[in-house]
Amino acid sequence: MDEINYISSNLDEGYSPEAIANMENALEEFIVSLSEIKPEDANIAVFRGLKVTITGRPRRLAELGNVESPDDPMKIELMIYNKEQIELVLEFIKKNGFPAKNEPGSQFIYIRVPKPSRMQLEELGDEVIRRTNSACTRLLKIKTNTGLRMRAAMEKEYIDQRISGIAIKKIDNALERITKEMKIIGVMKRKAILGSFFKTIEKDDADIVKVINKRIKLEKDKIAKEQELRIKDEALEDQNDTTDKVETENIKSNGK
């Protein structure tokens, strides 16, 4: 093997940077996936799934019309495709506990969606847990796949054991850091969804809540410190302006 290329490959291993970058991407995608879970959408999902019997066949409301909430997630606009079905669908919606109305001649049925129940919120919380666990498993797969590639590289003498050890340590540190961040973000999302209904379920929840509370306190202290400094700066600036004004008036008085 060419000695120069061998040394260069060892000094510039690309396994750990690639693995860490993939983990960071997984974190970003996880955050985006959680942003799609909204408490106000819980009842809308239930509404879409309601089935009304049309000509002896059960049909979902989403099949009978276009379901949208353009202005307010708690207000649904259902445009029925077939005008002849409007009265039937309207009565069905009302019987299922959704306040609804239709203006004469319009294909739109306007529905007010009630706030989600505690059970619905807990179901969303469970979905957050599922996505968090899935995202953490993805991180482990990234580590495992990278480890297999490095083992193959060592067998072919592209990298030696020392460099492999350093790379693995970097990956392990990133795995621990990003896994912890995912769990923190997951718990924060659950707290935002459940509010006063939130409770610790997973084994790490209690410790993570402590970390979150500490972060919140540090952020509040930081904001308070910044406000205090700004007030002092403004007071000093006002004092300087007053001093400059007095000095200017004294100069004018002495020049007369």
Characterize the structure shown.
It contains eight helices and six strands. With 256 residues, it is of the alpha+beta class. It has three domains: 3-36 and 118-197, Ribosome-recycling factor (Topoisomerase I, Chain A, domain 4, Orthogonal Bundle); 39-72 and 75-112, 2-Layer Sandwich (Gyrase A, domain 2); 203-256. A hairpin with a 2-residue loop joins strand 1 and strand 2 (57-60). Helix 2 (15-35) packs antiparallel against helix 6 (118-155), helix 6 packs antiparallel against helix 7 (161-194) and helix 7 crosses helix 8. The protein is flat, with a radius of gyration of 31 Å. The chain starts with a helix and ends with a helix.
The CATH topology label of the largest domain is Topoisomerase I, Chain A, domain 4
Give the N-terminus to C-terminus distance in angstroms: 93 Å
CATH architecture of the largest domain: Orthogonal Bundle
What's the CATH class label of the largest domain? Mainly Alpha
Helix content: 55-70%
Question: What's the number of helices?
Answer: 8
In total, the number of domains comes to: 3
CATH superfamily of the largest domain: Ribosome-recycling factor
The count of β-strands is 6
Oligomeric state of this protein? single chain
Largest sheet: 4 strands, antiparallel
**Gross geometry:** flat
- How do the strands of the widest beta sheet line up side by side? 3-4-6-5
Structural class: alpha+beta
| Low-confidence region ranges | 1-11
What percentage of the residues does DSSP assign to strands (E)? Answer: 5-15%
Q: What is the residue-averaged pLDDT?
A: 84
Instruction: Supply Rg.
Output: 31 Å
The SSE order reads: HHHEEHEEHEEHHH
